[in-house]
Design brief:
By secondary structure, the chain is an all-beta fold. It is about 0% helix and about 30% strand.
Length: about 100
């Protein structure tokens, strides 16, 4: 799947929805072990137990190298992954102290 900033994607196995913040190249983006889609159709499939740790609303998920970044806009039970590797929650930047 070719990722483009601003694209909204949906899980085909749970309620997870994400917005692409940053993406590069052609990647296999999955949630719950199943390919993410641009529009939901039909009944949801089964979540792969190895990818069932869930997503959190409002959190940003990224690859280790930062080449792909997604914003969770609707949480679900599936785990986000790129090319079979689970995405990590992006750490919040520390704000400067205000003296």
């Amino acid at each position: 799947m070719q990722l483009k900033a601003g694209t909204k994607l949906h899980s085909s196995v749970c309620d997870t929805d994400v917005m692409v913040i940053k993406g590069s190249g052609d990647v296999a983006l999955t949630c719950g072990g199943a390919e993410m889609v641009t529009a939901r159709t039909g009944a949801p499939g089964q979540i792969d137990p190895g990818f069932a740790s869930g997503t959190a609303m409002g959190k940003r998920y990224q690859t280790d190298d930062g080449s792909v970044e997604l914003l969770c806009i609707k949480p679900g039970k599936g785990t986000l992954a790129v090319n079979g590797v689970a995405l990590e929650i992006k750490a919040a930047k520390a704000l400067p102290s205000s003296d």
